[in-house]
Amino acid sequence: MKVRRIIAVCIILALVVPGVLIAQGAQETGETVLKWPLIWVGADSKAAEVARLVGEFNVINDGKYQVDIEENPDYDGYRTKLNAQIASKAVPDLFVFAPEPTMFSFYKGENLLMDFADELAGPWGDVFVGGAVAGATVNGETKSVPYEIAVTPIWYNKALFVKAGVTEMPKTMNDFWKAADKLKAAGIVPTSQMTGGTNAWTSMLWFSHIAASIGGPSVWEKPITDKVFEEAAAILLRMYSDGNTTKDAVGGDAGVSGGHFLAGRTAMFINGPWYIGRVRDEVPEVYANTGVASLPAAGAYPGGQIGFPLSNLSAGYTDVPAKKQAVLAFMKWMTTPENVKAISMDSGALFAVQYKMGPDEVIDPLQAKFVEAVGNATFVATHFQFNYPSNTVAEFGQALAKMALGKATPAEFLQQIAATVK
User: Fold this and answer.
1) Range 2-150+308-351 has CATH code 3.40.50.720
2) Taking the model in full, what pTM does it have?
3) How far apart are CA 335 and CA 46, in angstroms?
4) What is the rounded distance in angstroms from the CA atom of residue 142 to the CA atom of residue 147?
5) pLDDT tens for residues 143-195?
6) β 380-381/305-315 pair status
C-alpha cells in the first residue's frame, strides 16, 4: 500500500502542479475556481485518493472549473474555524459538513448554504443508499450531500489479549473488568481514552456505547441527567481509574488515544473505518491482529453498535450561474460510485454512495469486519455528539476531565453538561 501511495502522490503532483499555474490565469480565461478547505489531508487515510480525484477533476475541466484544496490537518481547528466562518456568513466555496445539531442549524440561514434538493430529486439521488438523502434534508431543503458514514465498534488487539491470557472479547462488563486486570498484570493498558480536543472523541464514543447498552437505541430521548447516563458515567469513570487507561488520557487528544493503540500499548480502542488505512499502512502487525466487536453488555440492551452519518459535502450559497454549475459538477464527481469506491477501498472508510465490486476486487479484510459488525448488531444508535450542539459537546470533555481527576461525581459530571443544554 505504501508503494501505491507513493505512486498516488506522484500522480497528484503531476496533476496539481500545472493546476497552480492555471489558477494564476483563471481570471483571464474565465475559469471558475472553488476553494476547498479540507481535513482529508496529511496522515488522513483518505488524503491520497481525494487529492488524486481533485487533480483529475481539474484536468478534465481545464479552463472551465478548478478546485483548490486548502489543507487543514487539525480536525479540531477546522471544526472551530468552520463554525465561526458560517456563523459570520463567510461561508467557504466547498466544505465538509458534520451532520449534527450545530451544523444543521445553519440550514436556517438565508443565503448561507446551497440547496441541492432539486438536483438530488433526479438521477443523481439514486446513487445514494436508502434514507441517506432524507437524513440530510430538513424542511424540504437538502443543503448538504450525504457522503461518509460510520460505525464505531470496539477495536481490540488480539495479540495483546493472547499475551494476557484473554481468549476473546468479553461479553459482559464483569468479564471486561476481569480481562482488564489480566491485561494490566501483563503490563498492557486496557483502554485508550481522551478528554481533549473539541469532543473528547474516544471517550465520548465509549460513553455512548455504554449508555446505549443500558438505555437502548432510544437512549438519547432521555435527559442527560437521567439515571441511565449516570450509570454510564460511573462505568466510564472506572475506565479512567486503577490503570485502566493511560496516564496522559486526561488532556490527551485523538493523536494520544490513537497513538497508544497504534503503538500496541493499549488493548482496546474505538474509532471508525476511516482509520483502517492508517493502521494497515503504518503498523501492519497491529492491523493483522485487530478484531472488532460490540461493547460487552452493560445493561439490558446488548449487541448494539454506534453508527451515524459522519460527513456531508456542502457549499456556500451562490447566485452566480457559473459558480453554481462548478459546485454541482464537483459534487457529482466526488459522489460518482467509481470514485467513491476508490476512496473506500484505499482508506477503509464507508460511504452513503452505493458502488459495485468488480470480479477481481476484494474488500479490505478489516473493513469487511466492520460491515459484518453492522450486520450482526442487535441495533444501531447514534452517539452523544450527534445529539447535542457544539457547546455541549465541548463541555463533555471538560466535565470528564474534572470527573477523572476526582473533582466531580458522575452525577456532577452530567450536571455540568446539562447546564449548557437549552
Assistant:
1) no
2) 0.79
3) 14
4) 13
5) 999 999 989 999 999 999 999 999 999 999 999 999 999 999 999 999 999 99
6) parallel
